[in-house]
């Protein structure tokens, strides 16, 4: 024969075949003692067309009706096997997850204190949150005082604040709305009564230490929030006894009227000041399970930036203050009023009897109002608000938001 003639070892069958080079090595895929009628042995190296031909026949062999080397029955067996395998694996995995969930405490985290995951970030150091916040991933408060409805309007800001603040309502055990009459002028009370509202009255208002000894008649004086969760007047109970009530699932009464008894410029009837360019921003301390604040007890312990504002009455308060983040912002913010239970416009305060948070049903985060009474319009203002206590770490870096919150104000 001619030397350039190609030699093949084939079986003359009409079936399609796969081309492979001749070799003397025994392969588990192509054993020598077994004749394969779909294989062509070639002495010379395989060409590109041979590879393409092999790929085509592997994907779909029209002669044997095999897909990827398997016929329909083989694929059915394989699918049945993997279905059973994955089903059993899923059942085993799900059973482990269910057992783990059943062992978890629904109210108390497994790791607390220095074992908590918070320690790996900034330690157990609560920050602040603010409202209104139209988008959870944005900190810009932008609106037009002349725009009543629509996007970037007064109504948009007011509705956002009111929707959040409406969760602080209280009702009695018959689910009737209650108000704190001690914070309302007597001549105005008749208007509330005509609307069907009534005054808050608790057994703790008479004798706080006898809360646990309430008989059947006295139990009708209970108070619950709008989600029908039990509430108590913590201001009338000794601090060392509060933890026992919290462990029973009770939480402190907190009304919007507690922040500012009497007329409040930060209220819905006054549009929270957004229509007049005097915006009110609610500031709240983030919930950290079991965290108890340690207020400053002497003036020397207070940071220099608020030391001139400290008074002995603040020994039982977590202090909160807002100011411009940069010198330029401070020059454009002329007056900020803090409206809180503390009653000091220069600085806000939250009483320590609202802590610790123990995941009580119906727990309401106490807050303070910061009203920017006199600020420049048509200018982007960077605001930073900080919480102050001995166990709230403060950073000297103005960019560090540890124990603080940052937001921007821009209105026209």
TrEMBL record:
The chain crosses the membrane at residues 80-103. Keywords: Membrane, Signal-anchor, Transmembrane, Transmembrane helix. It is a single-pass type II membrane protein. It is found in: Membrane. GO terms for molecular function: ATPase activator activity. Its main location: membrane. One of its GO terms (cellular component) is sodium:potassium-exchanging ATPase complex. GO terms for biological process: intracellular potassium ion homeostasis; intracellular sodium ion homeostasis; potassium ion import across plasma membrane; sodium ion export across plasma membrane. It comes from the Eukaryota. The keyword Membrane applies. Belongs to the X(+)/potassium ATPases subunit beta family. PANTHER family: NA_K-ATPASE BETA SUBUNIT ISOFORM 4-RELATED, SODIUM/POTASSIUM-DEPENDENT ATPASE BETA SUBUNIT. This is Sodium/potassium-transporting ATPase subunit beta-1. It comes from Adineta steineri. The lineage of its organism: Eukaryota, Metazoa, Spiralia, Gnathifera, Rotifera.
